[in-house]
DNA sequence: CACCATTCGTTCACCTTTCAACTTCTTAGG
DNA sequence: CCTAAGAAGTTGAAAGGTGAACGAATGGTG
């Protein structure tokens, strides 16, 4: 049985919007990464520091952190090992579930965070937020919201 | 002399828009990548096939292709080696500049492209384009345009 | 013309990510 | 309880990415 249908190609407007979106993402990632380099941090490092610093007791379970930062457990494990060696975080056993581990933000990690955050925020402003009007930013957010919801609902499906 | 100024933190709206943007990008990349996997292609592969198929004589210089796909020459060189082994492209000497090489789309590469494109477009629709109204997509595009321009102007600066 | 800075693309050594296998512990069912 | 299914996290090997260094070719300048 035939299930093929004519492909629904993108219209010019759609294609243009799509390509811009992809391009912005790649270039933006590149710039933000570059602006963090002087501090010897990657965006992944920074993201993890943010999550930890916003968590109760400055700690998170490995699995939760992996889910929150959208990466595999394996990748996170290697990543945390590196950050541990750099003194930014430390592993700590979990009493209630002895399979589990916490990643805990160290004093050093917190200081690094506080030192770097202003620069990173400035970078986000310079390359993104400050380049569009508050109204446009709001429109952008409104447009992305349904997409974010859809994608969240797709996480780890077939 | 003191050059520090109070950090311009993001407002709640700004932060929310920003985080959504980052999140969408990561999840979207993940989904598109996943939808290409059954065809044994990565987005990088696909992107290169698109660029080549849209070029005159189905060929591009390495440097131009690297610039177009926003990756380092080194990375592209490895990437093309892999794609060459997969039979999708082939390297060809450049007559007018004997330092140079062309990456040329092969017959196989073209067929792969034509086979995969409808699926990829469907994927882009499913996870992005079709989730927002044409008006919202247009707003999105309008909001991103100045950002894209800014970032293009930053390419390879200090 | 001869020179030297520059460009083109590859390579090497090193780091990061992926994937599957593995250990340890928890938990639901009989 | 005991067992089997499954979750938490790590590990190690293989694949992919980075950045500096390199050889070959080009092209503007004196």
What does this protein structure show overall?
2 copies of one chain form a homodimer. By secondary structure, chain A is mainly alpha-helical. The first copy, chain A, has a single domain, classed as Arc Repressor Mutant, subunit A (Orthogonal Bundle). Chain A is 62% helix and 8% strand. The first copy, chain A, contains 6 helices and 3 strands. Chain A has a 3-stranded antiparallel β-sheet with strand order 1-3-2. In chain A, helix 1 (12-36) crosses helix 5 and helix 3 (62-68) packs across helix 4 (73-85). Chain A binds a DNA duplex (30 and 30 nucleotides) through residues 61-63, 66, 71-79, 81-82, 94, 97-101.
What are the salient characteristics of this protein?
MarR family transcriptional regulator (chains A, B); homodimer; three-stranded antiparallel β-sheet; Arc Repressor Mutant, subunit A; 158 residues; DNA-binding; 8% strand; 6 helices; 62% helix; mainly alpha
DSSP strand count of chain A: 3
Percent of residues in beta strands of chain A: 5-15%
CATH level-four homologous superfamily name of chain A: Winged helix-like DNA-binding domain superfamily/Winged helix DNA-binding domain
Overall number of structural domains of chain A:
1
- What's the tally of helices of chain A? 6
Sheet of most strands of chain A: 3 strands, antiparallel
Oligomer: homodimer
Order of helices and strands of chain A: HHEHHEEHH
Please give the CATH architecture of chain A.
Orthogonal Bundle
Pair of chains with the largest interface and how many residues each contributes: A-B, 51 and 51 residues
Report the CATH C-level class of chain A: Mainly Alpha
Regions with little confidence, pLDDT below 50 for 5+ residues of chain A? none
Distance from first to last alpha carbon of chain A? 23 Å
User: Overall pLDDT of chain A, averaged?
Assistant: 95
- According to CATH, the fold-level topology of chain A is Arc Repressor Mutant, subunit A
Q: What strand order characterises the main sheet of chain A?
A: 1-3-2
Helix content of chain A: 55-70%
